[in-house]
Design a protein that fits this description.
This protein is an alpha+beta fold. The protein contains 6 helices and 16 strands. The protein has helices at about 30-40, 175-190, 200-215, 230-235, 255-260, 265-270, and strands at about 5-10, 15-20, 45, 50, 55-65, 70-80, 85-95, 100-105, 110-115, 125, 130, 140, 195, 240-250, 275-285, 290-295. A hairpin with a 5-residue loop joins strand 9 and strand 10 (about 125).
């Protein structure tokens, strides 16, 4: 059975490189070279390896981070390694101070890498990756800023019978509490405290799983455009930090938690020691669909 994962909070692993210093060609250019060196000490550009996204496209991310002075044009290219000069498959650019930029291109088997260019002529290339299949694969997504909105309601048939959760409170079903237990077991290995299964977060998570099941979609954004942060706030949970993992097609709690732990973006949510509360929503119809909402009040 096909399985899918998505995470909101952090992006995929990036290859980070320090900007190379620009050497001076003569005394007349020493000032600009010093400026480039100072910029390199504070500001970095990075390139991720191209990967196949959920739509079967090649996707690559470039970024400019750190203490960067002013704005500059950052260009991200998906390059294909071929005999002779390498081919630029897709190119995109934007004038930014710090940002992550994503470009996408039609996928075909081949060897690809990401090239990012920044200020002072700096160029960073990712490692090359051999794409042998364009079958859609899971990939993490960055988190949006929280904003209030409404929560989609769960369909009555999608709400299983509740059972006691750890600590004696009645939150969630047996399978949902098993996800909480396994998640806390993984957090303990990394020195993070256990998460409390919260009724309001569980309502937000279950509402989203039920909505995906009823309307046959798979996304962190609800069918009407609401974000995960909107759903959490509307459920009545005020937070300072929040994140979300979703999955589809995993048959058991153990399988879905292992799937999340095998994905860097999802694992980062689970192992974020900032979070203190969790809500888990599981709906079997059409999936199963799984949602984890994390938060710190």
């Amino acid at each position: 059975m096909k399985t899918s994962l998505r995470a909101l909070f952090c992006a995929g692993v990036l290859l980070v490189a320090t900007l190379p210093a620009t050497s001076s060609a003569s005394a007349s250019t020493s000032a600009s070279a010093s400026a480039a060196q100072a910029q390199a000490a504070r500001c970095r550009i990075a390139a991720s390896k191209p990967a196949v996204n959920q739509l079967g496209q090649l996707s690559a991310v470039g970024s400019r981070t750190g203490r960067c002075f002013g704005k500059t044009r950052v260009r991200v290219r998906i390059k294909q390694a071929v005999a002779g000069p390498d081919t630029t498959l897709k190119s995109g650019s934007k004038v930014v101070r710090t940002a992550k930029l994503r470009v996408r291109a039609a996928c075909a088997p081949g060897v690809y890498y990401t090239q990012v260019t920044g200020r002072f002529g700096q160029v960073v290339n990712s490692r090359r990756v051999n794409i042998t299949s364009c079958t859609p694969a899971p990939a993490p997504s960055p988190s949006p800023s929280p904003s209030p909105s409404a929560t989609p309601s769960a369909s009555p048939s999608a709400t299983p019978t509740a059972s006691p959760a750890p600590g004696g409170t009645t939150v969630g079903t047996t399978v949902e509490n098993e996800v909480v237990r396994l998640t806390n077991a993984e957090r303990a290995k990394g020195g993070c405290g256990p998460l409390t299964h919260d009724a309001k977060l569980r309502a937000a998570a279950l509402g989203h799983s039920a909505d995906m099941s009823a309307k046959n979609y798979f996304s962190h954004d609800s069918a009407d455009g609401r974000k995960f942060s909107d759903r959490i706030r509307q459920a009545g949970f005020s937070f300072r930090a929040a994140g979300e993992n979703i999955a589809k097609g995993y048959q058991t709690a153990a399988q879905v938690v292992q799937g999340w732990m095998d994905s860097p973006g999802h694992k980062a949510n689970i192992m974020n020691c900032t979070y203190t509360h969790i809500g888990v929503g599981h709906v079997a119809a059409g999936g199963p669909y799984w949602t984890q909402d994390f938060a710190k009040p």
